[in-house]
Amino acid sequence: MLTEQQLNAQLKHTLDKTNLGIGRKYEGKVRDNYTVGDRRIIVTTDRISAFDRVLCSLPFKGQVLNQTAAFWFGKTAHIIDNHLISVPDPNVIVAKECQLIPVEMVVRGYLTGVTTTSAWYHYERGVRDFCGNRLPEGMKKNQGFEKPIITPSTKAEKGSHDESVSREDILGRGLVDEKLYSQMEEAALALYHFGNEHVAKNNLILVDTKYEFGLLRGKLVLIDEAHTPDSSRFWVRDTYEQKFAKGEEPDKLDKEFVRQYLAKLGFVGEG
C-alpha cells in the first residue's frame, strides 16, 4: 500500500488532461473518450468530480477506477455482455463503440446520500414516492430497504445535473421502450446482487451503484464502468450495524466523504 508521503510526492504528476490526437474526442467529467471507427479508447484521468463539478486531480485515482471497472467487467460477463476489448494501460481501456442509452439505472439497497438526486435527500424533505418507489414512514438515514429499489436518472451532459425519474417518466418521454427498460432493470438488479454478494466476502456492503447501458447491433451491453468508488457507495460490513444503532456514519470506501465534506461547506454544485 502506498504511504501518504508517496502519494504527496505524486500530487504534481497527476493525469488531468489528454490529447491523443486521434479520432473524435469527447471529454467527460473524469474520462476522455476517443472514437475511432467501431472502437472507443477511454482514458480514465485522475480528475475527481462531485455534484457534477470537476474539483481537482488525485494521484492514481484514474488507475484505481479503470482497473476496478475492468475487474468487474470480467466478473459480470456471465450476467450481461460489456463493451470491454482490452486494457492496454492502467488508465486506458479499448472498448466497442456502442449506441448510448440516455438513462442511468441506479440501484439502491440503503436510504442514504447527500446529493440532490439521493434517496435520503428527498426522504428527509418529506418525499415518500421516489422515482416510482413507495418508501415507508419512519426510516432513518443509512437504513436498509426491504429489497433493493431502482431509481433511474437521465444521463446529463457535462456541466449539467442528472435528473431522478421514474419508469413511467422514461417510457412517457420515449427515452427507451418498455421491453428494453425491462431488460435494463433485470440486468441492473442481477449485477447489484452479484456485486453485493462478492464484496461481502471482503467485509464490504455494496450500498448503491449506477449502471450505464448501450446497444451493440441491437443487443443490450454494459458500458462505462461497474462497481467503482465513483459510481458506487461501499460500507464496511462488520461495523455497519453498530454505527447505525448509534446514529453514526458508516465506515466508507468510496467518494461519499468528499461529497459530505463539500456539503458541510455549503457547496452542492450550484455555482
* Count of helical stretches: 7
Low-confidence stretches: none
The helix fraction, in percent, is 25-40%
How many domains make up the 3D coordinates?
2
CATH topology description of the largest domain = D-amino Acid Aminotransferase, Chain A, domain 1
Please compute the radius of gyration using only Cα atoms.
18 Å
**Order of helical and strand elements:** HEEEEEHEEEHEEEEHHEEEHH
Structural class: alpha+beta
CATH architecture of the largest domain: 2-Layer Sandwich
Cα end-to-end separation: 37 Å
CATH homology superfamily name of the largest domain: ATP-grasp fold, B domain
If you had to describe this structure to a student in words, what would you say it looks like?
- The structure is a single chain.
- This protein has 271 residues and is of the alpha+beta class.
- The protein is 28% helix and 32% strand.
- It contains 7 helices and 15 strands.
- The strands form 4 sheets. Strands 8, 11, 12, 13, 14 and 15 form a 6-stranded antiparallel sheet that branches. Strands 1-2-3-7-6 form a 5-stranded antiparallel sheet.
- The two termini are 37 Å apart.
Keywords:
32% strand; Phosphorylase Kinase, domain 1; D-amino Acid Aminotransferase, Chain A, domain 1; 6-stranded antiparallel β-sheet; alpha+beta; 7 helices; 28% helix
